[in-house]
Amino acid sequence: MLLRNILIIIYGFIINFDKEGPKLGISQPVVAGLIAGLIMGDVKTGLYIGGTLQLMTLGITSFGGASVPDYQTAALIGTYLTIATHQSAAIGIALAIPIALLIVQVDVLKWSANIFCQQRAEKYANQGNYRMINWMQYLATLFTSFVSGIPVLLTVVLGPKIVGSFINYIPAWLSGGLKTAAGILPAVGIGMLLQYLPTRDYFSYIIIGFVLAIYLKMPIVGISLVGLAIALILYKNQTKGNNANQETVTGGSDEDE
Amino acid sequence: MSKMKKLYRKVMNRWIVFGATSLNYEKYEGLGYTYAMLPFIEENYKDDPKGKETAIKTQLQFFNTTPYTAPFIMGIDVGMEEKGKTASLEAVSALKTGLMGPLAGIGDSLFVTIPWTIFGAIAANMALQGNPFGCILWIIASILLRLTAYPLFNVGYRSGTKMLSSINTTLKALTNAASVLGLMVVGALAATMVKVNLAFTFKQGKLMMTGNSILDQIMPGLLPAAVVAIIYYLLGKKVKPLYVILIVLVVSVVLNAMHILA
């Protein structure tokens, strides 16, 4: 159990670093659920919690510092608590939602703390001490990894016992309501996506996807492939005119748009 | 030349690993950009300590764009500074500011929103069925997306600002096409992944129907679609996502307690 706890804590510190840095996919909620599940020895529960939380966030990340619930760290904590306290996955999801909302507040602290690093770096630049600029970047990286690392550390150290006894006090109306909410919350992720995508211009394709899924019961991979085919056709049509343009312009002056 | 190539790779490696980890409210990615460029600056202004200082101070300014598209800007930047040294710095600064906006717009949808939606949806779907393969697929896709940094840097370096308008049109066409794919997946997700279950059942003699099966006869997926539409409307009215989530939580608990939703 000790080894598992240590691995969970290490992974906790990696999550937010990967989210802002390498982005290798290991900081996505569903992957966080999988890895936490692997560490804790119950992959299925991890996948279920991570998958559910993934649907709540979808392609939305914190663009330019907007606050979006931290479902990544929440997936890790939810999975850990669920398996450590032998609860059902539904409880884990219900716990993860408020945790995701809380960690966004921690993220604000990081954005503020990193101002210190930025200003120190500027000071070192004035002094000609360029090596220290590197260290300011590393210090800021450390602050960034604290955003997910500290909550996970606290959860592992204090969590299972407290949460285990706390879960028993959750009234039925609350856990029932949270279960209902877990079904509806993916709609928020979808709604946010629709705000980012050119929904008005391409509304028809939403209908196509909807119909393929609900009437033809096509699995998501199949729908993606149909979408890919349409996308390729559109791309070809849209660049056809430009290619002709480009050939005449190559090596020449600016191309007009 | 080969020594320089190694240098470029070092700059890119630094950006890929530590790019946005020093995000801050004051200068956003300013420190991260400088950190990535430092090896190049050290080499480029080797014999000009005053120039080095000016270059570093220039790079420490405000910078904010999608980490995926920043390499293109860095490529142009390196190309310009190599030729123009300190004389180019003013132009570099203007260029960074001018490009980060448009490239963030394209980059956020092309490199983040759309691929994350598609691969996230696939991974989540498989995960709910207990299958980890979708996650592995996504990790592979993420790594490939990240590796675009090197070619994007090279395109920026080679073409400078000249190619900008044509690469912009290509990227826009690509973004449009990818958006279509994204929207189809979103439509499918709205239909299958949003679960709104009515709690009441309708009984008449032997006939018993649940609320959902009655609605399904009108149109399957009607309730999920309606919920998505309402949330889309709220977000369009500039209600913060955090508040929308809280609204969903409160409404769910209330409707569940009233035995309207299960």
Describe this structure in words.
The complex is a heterodimer of chains A (257) and B (262). By secondary structure, chain A is an all-alpha fold. Chain A is built from 10 helices and no strands. In chain A, helix 5 (89-127) packs across helix 7. Chain A is globular, with a radius of gyration of 23 Å. The termini of chain A are far apart. In chain A, 50% of the residues are buried. Chain B is mainly alpha-helical. Chain B has helices at residues 2-18, 30-44, 49-59, 70-84, 89-128, 133-147, 149-159, 164-192, 211-218, 222-236, 241-257, and strands spanning 201-204, 207-210. In chain B, helix 2 runs antiparallel to helix 3 (49-59), helix 4 runs parallel beside helix 7 and helix 5 (89-128) packs parallel to helix 8. The model of chain B has no long low-confidence stretch (mean pLDDT 88). Chains A and B meet through helix 2, helix 3, helix 5, helix 6 and helix 7 of A and helix 1, helix 2, helix 3, helix 5 and helix 6 of B.
